[in-house]
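Subject: sequence -> structure tokens, single chain

Hey, anyone have a minute? Need the predicted structure for the following. Not urgent.
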Amino acid sequence: MSELAARPADGLLPGIVPLSPSSLDAWLQCPRLFLNRHLLRLPESDSTPSTDRGNLVHAILRFVHENGTCHDKAHVGRVLEAHGVADAEIRGYIDRHAQRCPVGAPRQVHEYSVARFHRRPPPMFMATARIDAIWGFDDVVDVRDYKTGALLSDRVADDPRALVQAWILADPRYLHGRRLRIRYEYLSPDATDDPEPFEPSTEDRDDIEEKLRSHVASMWESDWHGHPDEVSCRRCAYRSICPDSAAPSEPSWPTPLAAETGEAEL
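Reply:
Had a minute. Here:
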């Protein structure tokens, strides 16, 4: 039987499964969440904390580095003023990053998209990731992921999102014989320290590839039922439309036009 002929009967997964740090994280949290967000791409039915502030911090850090350095306070001040975000909170995020920012890297890229394809053994998958910053030295590729939320793990290696990043970047066309180091910068004022960086060995890379392949294989066998847990379900953006939810609620999205008035009920 060919690899493509072995695809699931329900047809929800493509023959080449797209995999990203966020989609793997969603899959491990709950197959129903993975289905809704990454396969069906449904709009969120329930309110969740806004990501606008975090996205803004990422965008400002990119602009700061592409047009100067975060160690130049005058430059940072001009960037923040020009973008109308010169408040103490945003300055705090930038300052906390500057304390961790590599100095003297001859090469750097920001908001960089990377990809790698797995063919055999099946199932096939295409892994992609958007990397916040990559600092290239002669002996190491230093990868940074900016986090503005709460610390989730004491080691980057224990975060499933890092497995996708590590497997993609371990490709020789990215490393060119150098070591790989992945570091998560937790920039929230509540974060006291960063998790231990991840420097995967050759053996680690082989293990990671098999783990990712195994996760994709389990997707092919899924019945897409959720994992009902009240704490997790209360944070889910699809809890009101999920038949397996342990925290039922009412949808918060706009309702259809009211038949009597012809106006949307918001």
